Amino acid sequence: MILDVTSPQNALVKLAKSLDRKKARTETGLFLAEGARHVGEGLALGWHLDALLFSAAAETRPAVQALANQALSIGARVARVSDRVLEAVAKRDNAQSVIGLFRQRLTNLEDLAQASLIIALERIRDPGNLGTILRTLDSVGGGGVVLLEESCDPFSVEAVRASMGSIFSAPVAKAGFDAFDAWRKAHGFTMAGTSLKGSTRHTDTDFGARTVLLMGNEQSGIPDNWAEACDVLVRLPMAGRADSLNLAIATAVTTYEIWRQKGFKGARD
User: Fold this and answer.
1) What three-state secondary structure class fits 213?
2) Cα dist. 256→64, 110, 119, 184 in Å?
3) How many domains does the chain have?
4) What's the CATH number where 181 sits?
5) What pTM was computed for the model?
């Protein structure tokens, strides 16, 4: 049954609104995905949809009708809401016409054992950077992103938005550095870190057949003891006054070079 909701004080709406806070996401195990296309991707990839909110004004769109019917068929709660309610949930004007409440899902390191490329992030702080990196990994067909030590939440609204749907197709794992380093060695991964102390340019580096790209956080880069654990340290050439790139951009530049060396395997022609 589809519920008709017009009040921001409705219990389901209040739940959806609360998911911009990490405490609520942790307690409920849920997160928000905005937009019919992204909600559809989550469903297509088997993520558990807990609830669906859609705009009454968009109900005549075939894609929205299909999502509502699919959500009902799997037992999710479905609510037809006003634009005012959607804007209250999204906390911005001109909100997407569909918002899904999905169950969070992390992967285990062992699920990444056969990957040819893993991006490992050291205490990343900016959810926008994290979401963009998830999108980059997805773009090159990488195996997964590993968040090392305490990092920002991949299921925050900002990270999910920046991922542009890749939160559903780019596996995310969490680990401590020592355990991860031992795991990647046991599985034959070469670990390359980017650093101002790097001895070779990224384009002159052999990243190996199976690669972990280790990226330091936005403030201080890779710690010295982590850099020592890398098989190779690489640097990105710079010409202007800037001495570094934004974390997400530096990750993308290096990731695409690694993919180039792998022959752009899996690229759509």
Assistant:
1) strand
2) 35, 24, 12, 21
3) 2
4) 3.40.1280.10
5) 0.96
